[in-house]
Amino acid sequence: MANPYYDNSDAGQRFQPGTTVEASDVDGKFDSVQAGFDGADTDIKRSLKLPDEGTDQALTESALDRRNKVVGFDKDGKLVLTAGFTWRADWATSTAYAVNDVFRDAATKNLYVVKEKHTSGTLADDIGAGKAELAISVAEVEQFKVDAESAASTATTKASEAVNSASSAKADADRAEDATAVLDSGAIVDSTASQSDTWSSQKILEHSHAAALSF
């Protein structure tokens, strides 16, 4: 493949030992070399660059392993292939795991996410080394469920108590209203009876007065 910056592969275009060349031809060669350097400099400025930290940043995965992945960085800032979270089922020893792989601990049912590309040894050691970390604790989720159900039950009980209190208060109010009505009715009866007694007394006095005049 020809060099995209400067191609000097054609022997017939090279200056040959023991020959004389014109200055313009030499200048043309230098111009071509300079154009090649300029092209390389432009591409270097546009490229993604990593600091020289003395470590190899090569990606060694095969084409099959690179499918549907992107270049990213792990927890230590090292260049790795990564992707969206990939479900890897139950954890297994001596298995290659990539960053953002998700697996389940068959013993605890907990879910873990891989933070560093590695081949698994023992789960406890891999977690301790920071190669994987806990994502979802099943025990905590189950406790949250219990707490939520308990809170819902308490809320239902309180609501029922509030309804009962409201019903009791309404019943008391109804009884008080009935008692007031009875008292009001008794006062009316007393007032009518008093008025009737007064009228009767007046009639008796009138008859007595009339009888006295007749004598």
In short:
This protein is α+β, with helices and mostly antiparallel strands.
Main attributes of the structure:
215 residues; alpha+beta; four-stranded mixed β-sheet; two-stranded antiparallel sheet; 4 helices; 8 strands
Task: Give the topology.
Elements: H1 23-46, H2 63-66, E1 70-73, E2 79-82, E3 86-90, E4 96-97, E5 101-104, E6 111-114, E7 118-119, H3 123-128, E8 132-136, H4 138-214
Parallel strand pairs: 3-5
Antiparallel strand pairs: 1-2, 4-7, 5-6, 6-8
Give your account of this protein's structure:
This protein is of the alpha+beta class. Among the domains are: 72 residues, no CATH class; 78 residues. The strands form 3 sheets. Strands 3-5-6-8 form a 4-stranded mixed sheet. A two-stranded antiparallel ribbon has the order 1-2. The protein has a two-stranded antiparallel ribbon with strand order 4-7. A hairpin with a 5-residue loop joins strand 1 and strand 2. The termini are far apart. The model has no long low-confidence stretch (mean pLDDT 82).
